[in-house]
Each structure stands twice: as structure tokens, then as C-alpha cells.
Amino acid sequence: MGVALTRAAQWTTAGSGTGTLEITPLNESLLNEIIKFTESFSSKHPQEAAFVFKEPLEWETQLQPSAFTSGYEVSEKTVWSQETDKDGQPLLLLTGSTVKVRSFAHLSRLLYFAAEKRLKEAQACLQVNRDPIVKILGPGYGTIEGEDMSMLRLLDKVKKDDAGDTEMKMKISLLLQQLDMQLLNSSLKQISQEVRLTPAAVKNEVDLLKRFSGAREDAVLESLEYTSDYEFSNGCRAPPWRQVHGEICYLIIKPRDTETMYVTCSTAGVFLNGGREKERDEINYERKSDIYKDLITFLRERSATFVKNMAKQEYTFFDEPKYEKHYQHMEVVEADEYGQAQKFYDYSEKNVFEKPKSPLVKSKPTDSKKLEPSLKWKTMSGSQVGKAAKREKEDKESKSVSSEGKRKTSAPSSAGSSKGKVSVKVEDVSESSSESEEDEQQPERHQEINTDLPSEYWQIQKLVKYIKAGNQTATVIALCSMRDFNLHQETCQLAIRDVGGLEVLINLLDTEEIKCKIGSLKILKEISQNAQIRRTIADLGGLQIMVKILDSVDKDLKCLAAETIANVARFKRARRTVRQHGGIKKLVGLLDCAPMGTAHPTPLQGKDIEVARCGALALWSCSKSARNKEAIRKAGGIPLLAQLLKSPHSNMLIPVVGTLQECASEPSYRLAIKNEKMIENLVKNLNSDQEELQMHCASAIFKCAEDQETRDLVRQHGGLKPLATLLANSENKELLAAVTGAIWKCAISKENVTKFREYKAIEALVGLLTDQPEEVLVNVVGALGECCQEQANRSIIRKCGGIPSLVALLTGTNQALLVNVTKAVGACATEPENMSIIDRLDGVRLLWSLLKNPHADVQASAAWAICPCIENAKDAGEMVRSFVGGLELIVNLLKSDNKEVLASVCAAITNIAKDEENLAVITDHGVVPLLSKLANTNNDKLRRHLADAISRCCMWGNNRVAFGITKAVAPLVRYLKSSDPAVHRATAQALYQLSEDPNNCITMHENGVVKLLLGMAGSTDETLQEAAAGCIANIRRLALATEKAKYG
Amino acid sequence: MNRKKLQKLSDSLCKTAKHFNKFEVECLIKLFNNLGVEPSERHAVVGLDRNSFRNILHVTFGMTDDMIMDRVFRAFDRDNDSCVSVTEWVEGLSIFLRGTLEEKIKYCFDVYDLNSDGYVSREEMFHMLKNSLLKQPSEEDPDEGIKDLVEITLKKMDYDHDGKLSYADFEKAVREENLLLEAFGPCLPDMKCAMAFEAQAFQDSSDL
Predict the structure, then answer these.
(1) What is the mean pLDDT of residues B195-207?
(2) Where are stretches of biased composition, namely Low complexity (chain A) (predicted)?
(3) Is B57 in the same domain as B118?
(4) Which residues of chain A does B137 touch, with a Cβ-Cβ cutoff of 8 Å?
(5) Model's pTM, two decimal places?
């Protein structure tokens, strides 16, 4: 009871004895518990009820003497009980308004008499008798002073007491303790349900509001100050003796429309206090208003202007929900902790007095450790990572809820913003495909901030303080001094963040002081090299302000803002923010500067060029998102980039070409690069002495040269030679990958291949087949594959010893690489001399095993490569047969649903079927029905190879009949209507073979083949002619035979 | 002032104030005359006295710091006769509005060197910075922050470590970091004010 009363009950004032018990929900429930206990005491424990208190409980009552009935002697002013103690004192004595009670029995009767007023009576009693147990049992049992009092001590005490009393006292003491437990438990339940503020939460809120306070017309408050600058290690500013009451700090708030308010922030909430007493400069801690759950709610109630201006602050939409969420999580954690505490009580009732401190007090230090300053909540140490992740998830879920809640107060904009929300979600999906994202969920390091902080930390903290408190002059000095720290060092970067420097620096950007803005941006530019800082800058809304600065007149400022954006926009969310705030358009606007060609620009032009360079840098970062690429194009960025591409300076060219090559993944850009005549400049810069620039140029050509015209342009501008030359530089792997990629794509054109041979590129490429990273190998092999179109190159590869390396690469796993390697090996195999090497190296077996690769591209490519191998190998039939299960494997690939695989396998089967024995085997594996099943297709490539395969397969047994039965004939006839002459030829041959069977002739005739074939017979293609004529002849012969049979 | 005299004056000033062309010089002279400069009883010379000059600085260029404004006046008033003559006016504005970095460094140093002994001392810095920090009521020594700020400045700018800033120190520091040009208080117009002033001065007179 004592414990519960001191700890849980809410006393108004600190001074013990004089405080009053307020009627709060918590207290009320406590009192009710006590009353219930007392009332039922005499019936439940009649013996104990008769026990006479050591000292009477004495208090001012409002009961009238007349209220007392039987068992009491009532006079006009006094009432005394008939029962007395050993000394003859009445057990209940009422004189005037003072009542003295000496036993539970009379207490419960008194409460019974009091009826409705019992709550008041209990309150009055307990107010005066802070520790009733002392009075009831004697000072030894007190709980207020002797917190460490243990059961042992109690027992000890009990023993010393008069033997008669002992047992009784013991029992009462235990009963009272039980009540105490009960009270504590129930009050804990209450407390944990309530809104609990924490120092961190209050600090956040105050910081947030401070940002929007000031003399400005639209500020939400005029001022907001702490009464004390000293912050205790637990984050509280209230003096320790007030912290005991859960108070965190006191604020002096000057709203725009009402008088100055003195406010207490406590764990229970926010309320108005008595203000500062003038003569003593001390705060009157008394509560003067209702309790609100947080500062913003409080101010909403109190100041109309606050509500109005709050709605105007555009950033609050971004910030506020976040902070609110933050609170919610803290509450969750706190509740948890209470829950634990409660359990502890449950399980160890006996030891309860040993527990050093009550839950309320205890929880505070733990909290502040866990939820310390502002934005660090994301950055938990190892053991809390899981928790943090969970929270982040919750964040996302609660975001819509909480932000909607906020919006209610700003009705007009709510529709717009919620619309915005939907579109954001859509974008999330669309952007997920874009390339090279920085990992958003990068694990944050460097958490535990210990006592052994580097000295820089304290110096930076001091400087931040000066920036905060200083005018323009002091701020500039502090900013300059801060730049003297090694800002590339992570310790300094994080120190700036951890002392709240980022908020201050970003805040400066929103001022009118150009110098402060420049100084701040210079620092932000450096420290935004750090991924965590980037994220925080974005979280604090820095990007929006920087985008705004891009409109500034001051060119230095524009440059710095663009450069900082370039650094920050390295992750997806930031890039999206830039775009959504119109940043892309403004950045593209920066690109527009005076003619570039001049070798010696005036200082003014130089500035413009510098601005354009910074703009290009920022666009480069932004261009990694697909939507931004489009936004750049729509903002008219392409012609401006083309203009800048003519610049002679490599520091300008690198971001420009970087942007272009990034954007060249989009077809629209590839077209524009060709049409804006950028290829010429790209080619020119291949000769730069900057490897980075060369790399980006090569990479842009790589992406663009899929297009025939572009390839020709590269050749015409003399780009092939520098590309070939760059192959010699094998140290820079990125450059090498880009260059080999460009060569690969350029080599698709035959003219280019010839050029490459002249420049001895083939030899160089073969040299790159070993010891290269996969990105390079893919391109090298791709390039060789294209170069093999020329017979001469195929021999060059052999002579340079490239074939063993290529065959060795067939054992790889990289899908792209395998596609290219099989293609290259296939191309090489067209040369019988090469083929013998491949055969010796068992290359065909390797190719064949790639048919089992799960990727359709690899399957098809391998099957294509097998064709020339069979064609050119000696003893091909024997070789193929030697692959155990090989024929079954390839026939089964006819069940694939990829057209390219089907076409390639048909081609391979055509070649396999040239060997009669093999044809027999594949027939046994059911090749005929599988081919027939494919006959209904519109794909000309497949049609052609299918027709070839069918005509080859007709050569065995009664396959011709089988094709007829499996209904392959009618669809084949339709192939003759295709527009592809190659299809015609293959089909005519197949039909010729099929027409050897009379039933097929009938089917063909029925499908109108004669007319189609007659046309083909007039073709210039002899093979086609012959096959068509042969087929017609077969049909005719059958008709004649039939006529003969009919008419004899 | 008659036309001939004006011509002559502007011709000669064109040579000394090299950032203005002749037209602009004429405009400035006219502006100077329009400012209502009359020979006052106390001074024999014609020109702007301290108060009217300070008034211009305050109203036109938004300066607020009394001490700095006094120093700016001193910097304009080359001959120390407590009055800015028309020559000093045009020449001063030439640097004030369009000075090169070098000229501005010299000018700012002159402004900050309160006792004109060729050095900006600790005490002078303290004097100029003393209002630059918001006073924290809780701090024991309200000047502590300022003192610290002075030390920070010296650490950054005092290259020869003699505990005071020579012109060489100042110049080197500013060249390295342009932001330090107005290290001890704003004594140059910000871009907006300067542009507004130029637009007004040079357009107004062209109407005449």
C-alpha cells in the first residue's frame, strides 16, 4: 500500500506531507481498490479487524456526527465508539471535523457510513497519512524510508514484538503487502495503457517545432525555448527531484496569437504549469491544465495560428508523420518494459521490497539508452537490428495511417497529397528495374557511441553550437573552421550527423544568407560522399531545398547545390525526390550555357561552363533511374548534352558522356544520339587521355551500335582504330569491358570486321580470352563470334591458338558468356581445319552437354553450333552416336516451347539425319510425330528448318507415310505462301520427298499445291525449281496411274 | 555644378575609378549631388558627413552594425576629413560594388583594422564579433563563446602564428576560402542590394 501510494499515485507537489492526491483516473482506481479492501476487511478477516492500531489514523472528515448510528455514542459535536482499547481510548473518535480511527473494523464501518463520500474520505485519509502502515503497525514497518526493508528484517522485527501481537501483526502486514501488490499491478496496467512521452520524443518534437519557429510571418510559433540548457545524460532537462515525478523538461512557448505559455513535458504528457515565479526565478510546477499526449496536440488546442501555419509548412507533411511514428514505437517499447516489470513482480512477490527501484523510475535510464537522440533510432546496434527492421516495416505500414491522420488538419491539400501517394507507389514498381542501385537497406555501422569519442567529435559539436547560436558572421567562421576537419573521414562525417549538424546545415540552406548557404553546401558536398549521410540528408528534406537553390542567381551556389545533389542522388528514393520536385528540369536548365567551342572563355563564361558541368554531374547521378531518363529527355536535355559534348574539357565530358551512356539503355536516346550527330564526338573522345572518358564513350558506343547506321557512323568517323588500339590496355578492366563491348557490337557489320582485321584486333581479342573477368570475356567472345563471319578471321583465330581457349570456355556457367562462346565455336567450326581441333578437344561433346542447360538461349545457341560441327567433322555420324543418350536428348528438345530452340534443333536434326544410322535412331526416338506437331507455325525461321528436317527424315523407312499420318503435309503446303524464299526452297524439297507417297500426293493436291508449285517451278533458284518440278511430276504420275487404272 | 565642370570631373574620375565607365561615373556624380550635399557650417569641404553616409549604407545597402558602418565610412573617407567627397564617393563605390577580389581584400582589411595599425588584433576581433553569438543565459561566461570564436578564427587565418592578423595573413586566408572575405562582419553589399542600387543609379540618371 505504501509502495503503491508513493510510487504509483500521482501526487501534486513534491514536498511530502503537504501534497494533495488529485482525482485522476489512476488515483481513483487506486483509491477504489483500497476502499474495497478496507470495506471487506472486517468480514474477511474478523480477528485482524479487531487489531488496535499502534497510532490512530487521523484526518479531517466531512462526515457529520449524525451519520454515525449503532455502536457509537453521538453528541452534538463529537462521536466516540463504545469499543475501547486496553487504555480505555475509544477506537473511533470524532471531535469537530477531526476523526481518529484505531482499527480496521471501525475504518470499514466509517466508510460504510460515508456511503457516497467514501472516496473523498479515503482520499483525505491517505493524504494526511502518507504511510498508513507505520501508524497501523508501528514505525518498523514503514515503507517510505526503508526501501530496502526485506522480509527478513520484517520477521526479525516481528520476533522482537510482544509475543501476543506478533502473529496478528504479521498477518496484517502480509495482508497489506498483498494489497500493495494488487495496487501496483493494477496501476501498472493503467500506466502502460497511457501515452508515455520520452525525453527523446520530446526533444524531437521541440527540435522540429523550433525549425518552424521564428519571427517570420508564417512561422508556427514566435519562439520555443527550454528553461534550462543543461541536459542530463538521460535526456531530461528537469531537475532530478522533478524527474522523479516523470517530468522531462519545461518549455517557454510564445505562440503568435496568445500569451507566453509555461509548459511542462512529462512522461504522462504535456500540460501548462504555473509559470515562472518572478521573484524567485523558479518554476511553479503545479499543473494548470489538462494533460495532452504531445506538444503538437497541446499547441493545436491552445493556438489557432499554430494550426493555421502548421498547415502551411509544406515540410511538415514529410517530417511529421515520421516523428509521430517514432513516438509510437517508443511507446511500444516502453509498454513492453512495463510488461516485463510486471511479470517480475508476479513471480517474485516475496522479494518485492528488495527491488531497488519502482518500475517508473527504473524504466527511464533504460529507455534513454535505447531510444537516445533524434534520428539515431534507425541505427541500432547488432542485437537490435531485428527489432529495428521490424520497426521499419511497421513504419511503412503505419505511414499511410498516421499521415492521413495529420492531413485532416490541412484539409485543402489532403486530396492532392493522397493522390501523390498513389503515384509514388506505382513508381516504386517501375523504378525497381533500373540499373545499378545503391543498396537502400545498407547496414549502418558505427553505432555504439562510447565515452572514448575522438576529440573531433567535441570540436564539431562546439562548432555546430556556434552555427546555431551565431549570426551570419559567426556562422561563416564556424562553417569555414568545420571545413578544416578531414571531412572525407567517416568519424567526422558521422560526428556532424550525430551532433545534429545536418539539421542545422540544411536549415541554413533555407535562409537568405548566400555565404551561409555556400559554406553549408561546401560541407554537405563533402560529407555526402558517405551513404548514411546521403540518406539522412534526404530524410531531412535537404534535396527539396537544394533543388530550390538551383534557381538561385548566384552561380557558385548553383554549382554547389548541383554537385551535392549529384552525391546525394545515388540512391533510388533520392533520385525520385529530385524528379518529383522538378529538379530534373532545373538541372537540364543548368546545361544551357554559352558556346562551348571557345578555347579561352571569359571568366563569366567559365562560370557558366562550370554550372553546366555541375548540372551534368547531377544529371549523371539521376540518370540511373528509368523515369529520370525520360524526364531529362522531356526537359530537352538531349540537344544540350549534344552541345556540351563538343566541349574540349574532359572534366565536362566525363559527366556528359556518363549521362549519355547511362541513358543509352533507352531506344529513344540511341536514336537521338545518332540523329544529333553525337557519334562523331563520342568517337573523337575515344582518343582522350582520360581513361574514364574513354570508357564512357566506348560504353555509349557499345549500347548504341546495335543499330546498323550507328555502326557505319562509327566506322566513318574513324572510331574503329582507337577501339582496336584500346584493346592493348588490359589493366583497366572497366575500360576493357566497354571497349570490347563496342567492338562486339560494331563487328556486326561486315565492313567493320574487315577494318578490325586490318587493325589486328582479332589477334588482340584472342589474347584477351584468358585471365579476364567475365564482363570482359562475354564481350571478347561476342566480338570474336561476329568476326568469324569472315573466313580469313577464322583462320587467324586458329593460328593465334584461340580455339582451345574458346572450347575451354564452354565449361563455364555464365549464361551470356555461354551464348557467345557457343556462337563463336560454331562459327569457327565452319572451317574444317578448325573443326578438327574442336573435335580433338572434344568440343562437340561439350556443346552437346550444353543442350541440357536450363536457359533456352544457351540451348538454342548450342544447337546452332552443333550444325556446322556435324557438317565439317570427319566421321560425324560415328561421333554423334558416341554421345550416350545424345540423340534422345536432342529429339526431346523438340518439345520445347521456345521458337529459337525449336528452329535450331530442327537444323541440328537435319544434319544428324544425314547419317542413315542416326536417322534410324532418331526415328525410333519418335522424331516424326514431334516434327509433325510443330508444323502449324507462322515463324519463317522455324518453318524453313522444320521443312529441311522433314525432308531429311523422309529418307528412312516409312517415315514419308508417317508424316502423312501425323498430318504434317497440309500445313507444309501453306508454307509455300510464305514470303521467305528460303522457306519455299526447303518446303518444296520436303514436299518432293513426301510426294513419293501417294496418300501425301492426294493431300497436297487437295490443298491446292499444284498451282503454288507451278509458280515455283519458274523460279530462278535451281534447287527450288527442281524440287517443285519433281513434286509436280510425282503428283502427275499418280494422276496418270489412277486414270490408267480407271479407264484401263 | 555646371556641365563643363561635371565633364572634367567625370573624365578624371574615370581614370581612377576603373570599374565604371564614363556614363556611370556621371550618374554617380549626379546621384552624389542629388543626395543633398551642401557645404555644412562645420566643414569647409563639400561631401557626405558620417551620419548621412551611414544613412545611405543602412537604407540602401541594408547594413546594420554601427561599428562596421563607421569603419566603412572611414574606408571611404581616404583623407580622414570626416567627410566623403565626390571623388572618394565614386572611387569608394568602384571597389564597394565592383571591386576585384584583391581590392575587396584590401578594403575589408582596412575596415577590420580598427586602429589602422596594419594588424587585426585579438581585441579588435573580439570587439567586432562580440554580438555575433546569441547569448545563452545559462552560460557562466557569456564572452566565452566569442573568445573561442576568435581563437578559431586565428587558428584558421593567422598563418605566421603571431597572434594577430597581418594583411598577408588575411589575404592568404581569403584567397584560400573566399567566404572569409567578410570574416568579421558584413561590410560589402550583398548581390541583391548592389544590383538594385546599380539599376536605380544608372537608370535614373539616364532619364535626365
Answers:
(1) 74
(2) 410-423
(3) no
(4) 229
(5) 0.61
